[in-house]
Amino acid sequence: MKNLNRHSDKKIKFRVTCMSNLGVRSNYYGLIFILSVIGAILFIFTEFGGYTTYYQYSVNIESSFNNPDLIAYAPLLILVAFFFLLNIFLSLKELNIIKVAFPRNSAKLGFYSSLGILVITAIGGVAFEVLLSESGAWNWWLNSGFYAGIIGGILLPLLYYFIMKSPKQPT
Q1: Residues 6 or more apart from 155 whose CB is under 8 A from it?
Q2: Which of 5, 35, 79, 131 has the CA that lies 20 to 30 A from 27?
Q3: 144 with 46: CB under 8 angstroms?
């Protein structure tokens, strides 16, 4: 059998190009922006959970100020909403869309604020379950605000971890 490439005088050169780490980092920050916006909208405008006694109650930021029984949730819900908004501004800053004076290592700040979202949402969910299991509620549930905090609190730190592990390109 004859080798077709045996008599070829042309040498094949492969050119390998690397994607700059700046492009990878901006992709991560774009994902952080999208996840933070979705998480903030779901956390702020939907219910964290609900329960039924003689009436059906919804636990969210608005109801925690209107119902004296739910006022203990207000600081937790506001803090998680603040952390989501902080991640939105950090990602916009790193994408050079806005100019804000945040610390130089904003990835570390975002990482810890994202872990704060996870921890505070988990503590709020556990407290919600424990308090309602001891009360006279017939039925209780966690809803989209809770799940937005948990899912965002898992995915956002992972993205910040990838950002911190990718070397920053000199500018």
Answers
A1: 35
A2: 79
A3: yes
Domain limits for position 95:
21-165
Would you give the DSSP letter of residue 166? S
52/54 Cα distance (integer angstroms) = 6
- In the prediction, which pLDDT does 70 show? 81
Give 138: exposed, middle or buried? Use CB within 10 Å, 0-12, 13-18, 19+: exposed
* pTM for this entry: 0.80
Q: How far apart are CA 28 and CA 133, in angstroms?
A: 40
The answer to whether residue 10 is domain-embedded is no
Q: Is residue 99 in some structural domain?
A: yes
What is the spatial distance between Cα 50 and Cα 45, in angstroms, rounded to a whole number? 14
Residue 156 in domain: yes
Q: State in Å, rounded, how far the first CA of the chain is from the last one.
A: 55
Angle at 73 between CA 70 and CA 79, to 5 degrees: 155
CATH number of the CATH domain containing 26 = 1.20.140
Within the chain, which residues score under 70 in pLDDT?
1-22, 102, 168-171
Residue pLDDT, tens place only, 106-147: 899 999 999 999 999 999 999 999 988 888 788 999 999 999
Unique residue bearing structure tokens 């916006």: 37
- Put residue 96 in one of left, alpha, beta given phi > 0 → left and psi -120 to 50 → alpha: left
Whether residue 2 is contained in a domain is answered as no
